[in-house]
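A student in our group prepared the protein record below, which I am reviewing. I have pasted the whole thing underneath without changing anything:
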Amino acid sequence: MTAQAGPLYELTFSVEQERAEEFGRWLDELAERSLQKEGIADVRVFGPGRKSEDTTTRICQFLCNDDGALNELLDGFFVDTEAAVAQQFGAAVKVSGRTLREDDAPGLPATTDGPDCLNCGTRLRGQYCGNCGQRASSRLISLWQLISEAFGDLLEFDSRLWRTLIPLMSRPGRLTRDYLEGRRTRYMPPFRTYLVLSVIFFVVAFFDPRDDLSLLFEPEPEQTPEEIAETAAEAAAAKQEILDELAQEGIIVGAESPQNRAEGADTQDPVSGEDRRVNINAGFNIKIDEETGECLVDDDDVADLPGWLQKRLTPERLKRVCERIGADQGKTLIGLMLDNIPVALIVLLPLMALVLKTLYPLSRRYFVEHLLFVIHYHAFFFLILILQILFARIAALSGVPGAVANLVLVAASLYIPVYLYMAMREVYRQGRILTFMKYVTLVFCYSIGASLTLLGAFLFALFAV
């Protein structure tokens, strides 16, 4: 091939050994025919090269006259060539193509009229810009290429997605250790993995098609008066059961408490002759009049709260929050709470990394390395929860026996703490007994940290109602 600057198009063929000779003859004929094609200046063929015991590799490069000729050939001749390979050889030959560029070939003066990257202006030397990574060609890709790129990582087994998720699931700590030792390109970035899995988890866990896509579903048939009465009776029984449990724990006192009902306590209201109030004791007392639904709060009800909380949770504000929660049965509060949980979990990451930094003072690891361990563990936690939810739903639809489904779910749940211990062993490489002691400490700190962050999420949701 003549050494000169110009766009190249390279076709790489992976050929099964049984048809290697036949394909070699076909490729030589293709090279001869392509020289007669307008827009192609020269052709050269490389190989065969051994790719594996079962396949060989052949490469054919086409030197095009200019970028215009390359774009025309991409839409015509090269597409026809790949189709001809598929028609004649089927699955025995796999083909892939890419655009290259021969710049500043030996013995030739450097060219100055080569194209620049349309994004950053850097001189192009190949299919992609060496500065920003954008494709060299500005030609619009086909719809099939767009779909292939969108789902390539999902459908291609050797993609970074699967090379990340498989060891994340089955080899505790291996992903973290490889990343710390510099083997990183093969995997998805850690924080991106965490964010993707967390988003998928919250979508899978809380997305209800009948609520969010109600337009696509037919309305449920109206209940008969007998069904309405039965549902109301079940709701009343469930409500009373909850009230009894709360009363036994001392959270509520008043007319609805079983103690007052058993002792015949005087719960009459001086105006109506009947006391309809329930006193909720949750660190502060909220009295709710069941007849009017009015929240009754005064200064004494918040007197036992910490000073910083008293300034923010005044009786007026507490009454307003109580009324808003009662107006929609707490749906707004629950929604805000769920919105705050992802932020609370992100806050938990550096806290647990700090605990690991304290547990391994002699490991000579930076704080960010401990943070990487926690990020990978939380990503695994989301992944196993996603699999559990999907399995439970599939088992319910496919009629899997409940005992079998529960056994699988329990085994998966037990794998979560076991995974943490095995990951600590893999990454920090300490003995079993010492690792177990630090593992118990870490789990204890996890429970405290998770409780505090969830409490913070609840308080933020409460103040935002």
About this structure: The mean pLDDT is 76.
